[in-house]
Design goal:
Two copies of one chain form a homodimer.
Chain A: E1 8-13, H1 18-30, E2 35-39, H2 56-60, E3 63-65, H3 68-71, E4 77-82, E5 93-95, H4 96-107, E6 112-116, H5 125-128, E7 133-136, H6 148-160, H7 178-194, H8 203-216, H9 224-238
Parallel strand pairs in A: 1-2, 1-6, 2-3, 4-6, 4-7, 5-7
Helix pairs in contact in A: 1-6, 4-6, 7-8, 7-9
């Protein structure tokens, strides 16, 4: 299998703040993609963007172009990213969840360009004319634009995310055994008895209450000996 | 139904750069959440953060606390966000895809706090001791930390995203009818004939080739009259 992630070109057009190019580079590295292209950045010294912690090599390898046509020339699919909806688009608009799936499928075959416009104006009409369709980040208010670095991160995350991971339960805590829970119950009851907490007339029902309480605590296996050590020390101090 | 989104508290601890608090506020607004809490921000003037375009009211309403304990006091579930894996955690670690589902379920019942540590150090041991479990953003290299504003946006997006939207196909283009495609084919063939492109001996096979080519173009219904207008003009200029 070819590495589909290597086929994606993130294309940033007329970006004003170099920190946003840095943030995009960082997201590209975070999610295992590799290629960044910039078209007419506002600040030509964008390669020094500081927010690119750990993404400096990627930023150095970024390719610079004078036009969108050149930046997307080797791509078989060109998609524009938008959080908008305010303007009437000439293009089909696909939600990120579905659009990312289409892009992933296309990436297996050939290079795909994903275009991001400037912070202030988004993609212009000329940029849009290069796009086959648009991908919309599903924000609640289309009038409230997204932070550019966040928009890049969201698009890449949706492509990198693993739908199967929704159902897995990694890192589940191993619970204490019933025997351990019972030991803790007994020690706690003993401590309560020695402290005068337990009324001899209702001792039996107190025992049941404490047992149920300890079961509800859902003590982890590794915490059981710690709790028993605490109780042992308290019992020692309480004496007979 | 109560508004589950209103139950989420995004808690930012010891954030150094006020722009990151602004970016978080913007993401909270973008995805329809409402509440931001800050604990000991480095820059007490964080409410002026400029990157919060459109999120100024939310930033003004942000609550400030002196300790994590106070910031999470009203919550029934406290989760720490991390992109790491470098340290050995005492907590169960859940991937964002699964963790977000658990948080959504909890939000329907009661307030939930989602904790984000500082840009440099992430969540400290004291912060972690308030968490029931940790949620990990699935980056490829756990050693390469995420941009804080992007991390907040990703967690909120995963909660707001609509799993059903993966399969829908909004904005599909209505294709031209077969009759329109045939009209275009006929006009194009006529133009090719008048231009001397068509060899009379192979005219039949050329006709078939052009017909197949036009079908592969997948002309949209609304583009068909435009194309026919272009061809009509060319035919007029070509004359008989």
């Amino acid at each position: 299998m070819i590495d589909w992630k290597n086929n994606l070109r993130v294309v940033m057009i007329s970006t004003r703040n170099p920190l946003n190019i840095g943030a995009a580079a960082r997201a590209i590295a975070n999610f295992g993609f590799a290629r960044l292209r910039v078209v007419n950045p506002y600040d030509v010294a964008f390669r020094e963007a500081r927010s690119a912690v750990g993404a400096a090599p990627l930023l150095r390898r970024a390719e610079e172009f004078g036009s969108v046509a050149e930046a997307v020339a080797d791509c078989r699919l060109v998609v524009g990213a938008t959080s908008g909806g305010g303007r009437r688009f000439q293009h089909p608009l696909r939600r990120l969840e579905y659009g990312a799936r289409l892009i992933k499928r296309a990436l297996v075959q050939a290079p795909v360009a994903l275009l991001f416009g400037s912070e202030k104006f988004g993609l212009g009409n000329d940029d849009l004319s290069h796009c086959q369709w648009l991908m919309r980040i599903p924000t609640v208010d289309p009038g409230l634009s997204m932070n550019l670095g966040q928009a890049v991160a969201l698009c890449l995350y949706e492509m990198a995310r693993d739908p199967k991971a929704v159902a897995v339960r990694p890192g589940k805590i191993k619970p204490a055994s019933a025997a351990q829970a019972e030991q803790i119950t007994a020690m706690l009851l003993e401590a309560l008895g020695r402290s005068g907490y337990v009324n001899p007339l209702t001792a039996a029902s107190t025992g049941e209450k404490v047992r149920r309480l300890v079961r509800r605590l859902n003590v982890a296996a590794k915490d059981a000996p710690v709790l028993m050590g605490m109780l042992r020390q308290i019992l020692w101090k309480l004496g007979d």
